[in-house]
């Protein structure tokens, strides 16, 4: 009797202490198209000034259509902040480009100086981005320091290069760890435990796929070349056909290359995003689940790219909405039922120069 | 005008939320939750968040509390014309689909080059001088070797150069000709914005018995400097890059490759335009010096011989920095001098 009792006891379901909440994205391609095309039109007409408003409106569309348990996200930036930031960033970019072109030697010093500026830019960018994001009236924030950023973005990559890139996966895991473990939601810090092994496995997979992909591509394009050689045994009457086949070969290579990039990109981004989110949690609040699948993601990227190419760019808004929906569908939260209310502890912040500068110099490092 | 808006009320600076209602009556707004009226505000003390189509309105209270409407389509009655109405206006959207590509083409192919070239003429001389000097320092170190051409031949070329400068009333202090060997460049000639012109041993060898052809090449290079082509190219590429960045922002992945390709194609087109301008300059000056335009054709023919035997891959011509060589020869052969 004891035995059966204890078996029955074991089979009682435990009281649920958490609940699952999917991330919901309600944006529509058609709706966003209107916003996007008017943005582009006004940006061109105002010689770029409107781009600050365009950015705020775009972000507010995507944030405002992303919800968890019926509560939507909010993007709080003020277009004037962004505009000031952009103007300063453009000035910096112009100064850099001009000095590199006109005064190549001076340019070298500029580049060196930028090395020391980048960690600050990245930090400020992350800080601003997060600071302007809010969920349930509580803002996010970023807590990383200059020293940590300098280590992560300058020193470690150099170390990685010195080890003939063998240490790069480790460096990449350190970078992701730095960024994500300094994310705060109100008074809660994001707890992140990343495994370096996952990065190594992913990088090896990426390299294998690249090698296989390039080999296949070479075989296909090489086959075309061989065919063309058969068609024109000497460079005489067969030149036309040869040139035509070379043109076709070029096109095949171009599309094959895009396909390969999509697959490799999807492979890395899906695995790493899944790994980071699955190993992150706000203690006593929520943990995350990410289930992005590689092939569907690769297909998404490929179809988006082809659509953009063949629509001369008009498919960009549709592609962005599609991607947001795809990512949201693959993301869930596991929320603690006993979570207390989160408190917003942050102060106001001023300019967004760093974020804009970071973006123009393409050091915008994003989350997830 | 009275409105009742259902939504969610978030406590100040906290993530706690309550189902609530806002009753908007003219200038006054009252907040209701748990069945009671809790607070009354003047509408002007509330900040409304930017309204976007498809996203519900949000209002912030003076104490940092927030109200978010339930229905994404509800808007405050007082709201006048907004960006939103533009973004939902079907006529404008359809019109934009045509306007945007047209305007973009206009900006990139017409307006920005004009601005770039106009601004270039305001640049002080010191800029072209420095640019030329610093670029030459690097080029000399990396691509050039001491000339192996006969000293006599070099002197002849330099004398012809000096005579030409005098005849065309150009400054010999500014325009300095150098002869170098260059395995990297092969038969070639180039000009830097400060007036430094270099011609390589291999090119001199190729055109050994055609001094007029050498002259044609040198005039082409002078044309580049006179028209400030290097500076224009830089100004133009910087402004295009900035414009692309501003308009498209940060597009991940393959989008960047496409933008870069587009940018390269635009640059190549400008490069070809400038080469044509330099060709015209050379042809006109040859005529002014009483030399036959055929001299230019001869120079080009020697380049044509170089590319013989290579297949003509049509798509590559869009990436080419120079116009098609045969086209340049044909132009020289059919050249009529510009009206004086």
Structure description:
The complex is a heterodimer of chains A (368) and B (340). Chain A is an alpha+beta fold and 368 residues long. Chain A has helices spanning 2-10, 29-45, 51-64, 79-102, 104-131, 146-162, 168-181, 196-231, 239-278, 294-310, 316-329, 353-360; strands at 18-25, 66-68, 71-75, 133-135, 138-142, 183-185, 188-192, 280-282, 286-290, 331-336. Chain A has a ten-stranded antiparallel barrel, surrounded by five helices. In chain A, helix 8 (196-231) runs antiparallel to helix 9. The radius of gyration of chain A is 25 Å and the shape is globular. The termini of chain A are far apart. Mean pLDDT of chain A is 83; it is low at 362-368. Chain B has 340 residues and is α+β, with helices and mostly antiparallel strands. In chain B, 51% of the residues lie in helices and 16% in strands. Chain B contains ten helices and eleven strands. Chain B has helices spanning 83-88, 90-120, 125-143, 151-167, 201-206, 211-226, 229-248, 254-288, 294-307, 325-333; strands at 2-10, 17-25, 28-33, 36-42, 47-48, 58-60, 66-69, 145-146, 176-181, 189-191, 196-200. In chain B, the strands form two sheets. Chain B has a seven-stranded antiparallel β-sheet with strand order 4-3-2-1-7-6-5, with no helix packed on it. In chain B, strands 8-9-11-10 form a four-stranded mixed β-sheet, sandwiched between helices. In chain B, strand 2 (17-25) and strand 3 form a beta hairpin. Chains A and B meet through helix 2, helix 3, strand 3, helix 4 and helix 5 of A and helix 1, helix 2, helix 3, helix 7 and helix 8 of B.
């Amino acid at each position: 009797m004891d035995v059966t009792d204890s078996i029955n006891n074991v089979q009682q379901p435990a009281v649920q202490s958490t609940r699952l909440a999917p991330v919901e994205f309600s944006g529509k391609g058609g709706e966003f198209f209107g916003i996007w095309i008017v943005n582009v039109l006004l940006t061109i007409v105002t010689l770029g000034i409107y781009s600050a408003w365009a950015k705020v409106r775009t972000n507010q569309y995507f944030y405002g259509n992303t919800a968890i348990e019926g509560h939507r996200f909010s993007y709080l930036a003020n277009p004037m902040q962004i505009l000031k930031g952009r103007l300063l960033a453009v000035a910096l970019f112009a100064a850099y480009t001009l000095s590199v072109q006109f005064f190549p030697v001076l340019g070298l010093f500029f580049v060196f100086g930028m090395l020391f500026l980048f960690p600050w830019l990245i930090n400020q960018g992350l800080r601003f981005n997060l600071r302007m994001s809010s969920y349930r009236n509580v803002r996010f924030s970023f807590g990383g320091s200059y020293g940590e950023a300098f280590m992560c973005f300058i020193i470690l990559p150099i170390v990685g290069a010195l080890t003939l890139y063998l240490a790069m996966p480790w460096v990449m895991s350190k970078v992701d760890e730095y960024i994500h473990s300094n994310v705060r939601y109100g008074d809660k810090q994001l707890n992140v435990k990343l495994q370096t092994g996952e990065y190594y496995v992913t990088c090896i997979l990426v390299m294998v796929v690249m090698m296989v992909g390039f080999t296949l591509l070479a075989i296909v394009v090489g086959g075309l070349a061989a065919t063309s050689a058969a068609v024109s045994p000497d460079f005489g009457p067969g030149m036309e056909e040869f040139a035509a086949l070379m043109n076709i070969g070029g096109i095949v290579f171009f599309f094959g290359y895009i396909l390969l990039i999509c697959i490799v990109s999807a492979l890395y981004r899906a695995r790493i995003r899944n790994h980071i989110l699955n190993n992150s949690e706000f203690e006593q609040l929520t943990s995350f689940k990410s289930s992005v699948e590689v092939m569907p993601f690769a297909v998404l990227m490929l179809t988006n790219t082809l659509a953009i190419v063949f629509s001369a760019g008009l498919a960009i808004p549709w592609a962005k909405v599609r991607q947001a929906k795809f990512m949201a569908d693959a993301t869930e939260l596991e929320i603690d039922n006993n979570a207390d209310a989160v408190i917003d502890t942050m102060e106001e912040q001023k300019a967004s120069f760093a974020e804009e500068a970071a973006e123009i110099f393409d050091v915008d490092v994003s989350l997830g | 005008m009275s409105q009742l808006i259902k939504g969610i009320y978030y406590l100040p600076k906290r993530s706690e939320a309550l189902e609530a209602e806002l009753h908007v009556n003219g200038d006054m707004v009252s907040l209701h939750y748990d069945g009671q009226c809790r607070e009354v505000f003047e509408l002007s003390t509330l900040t409304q968040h930017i309204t976007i189509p498809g996203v519900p309105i949000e209002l912030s209270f003076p104490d940092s509390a927030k109200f978010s409407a339930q229905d994404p389509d509800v808007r405050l009655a007082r709201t006048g014309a907004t960006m939103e109405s533009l973004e939902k206006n079907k006529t404008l959207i359809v019109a934009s689909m045509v306007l945007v590509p047209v305007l973009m083409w206009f900006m990139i192919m017409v307006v920005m080059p004009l601005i770039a070239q106009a601004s270039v003429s305001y640049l002080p001389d010191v800029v072209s001088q420095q640019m030329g000097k610093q670029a030459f320092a690097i080029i000399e170190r990396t691509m050039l070797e001491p000339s192996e051409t006969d000293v006599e031949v070099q002197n002849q070329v330099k004398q012809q150069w000096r005579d030409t400068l005098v005849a065309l009333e150009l400054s010999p202090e500014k325009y300095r000709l150098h002869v170098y060997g260059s395995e990297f460049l092969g038969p070639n000639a180039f000009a830097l914005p400060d007036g430094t012109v270099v011609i390589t041993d291999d090119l001199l060898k190729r055109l050994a018995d055609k001094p007029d052809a050498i002259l044609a090449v040198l005039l082409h290079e002078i044309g580049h400097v006179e028209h400030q082509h290097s500076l224009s190219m830089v100004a133009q590429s910087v402004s295009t890059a900035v414009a692309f960045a501003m308009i498209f922002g940060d597009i991940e992945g393959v989008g960047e490759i496409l933008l870069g390709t587009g940018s390269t194609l635009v640059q190549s087109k400008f490069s070809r335009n400038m080469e044509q301008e330099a060709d015209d300059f050379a042809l006109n000056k040859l005529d002014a010096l009483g030399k036959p335009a055929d001299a230019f054709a001869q120079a080009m023919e020697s380049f044509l011989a170089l590319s013989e035997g290579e297949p003509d891959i049509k798509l590559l011509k869009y990436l080419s920095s120079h116009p098609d060589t045969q086209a340049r020869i044909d132009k020289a052969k059919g050249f009529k001098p510009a009206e004086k």
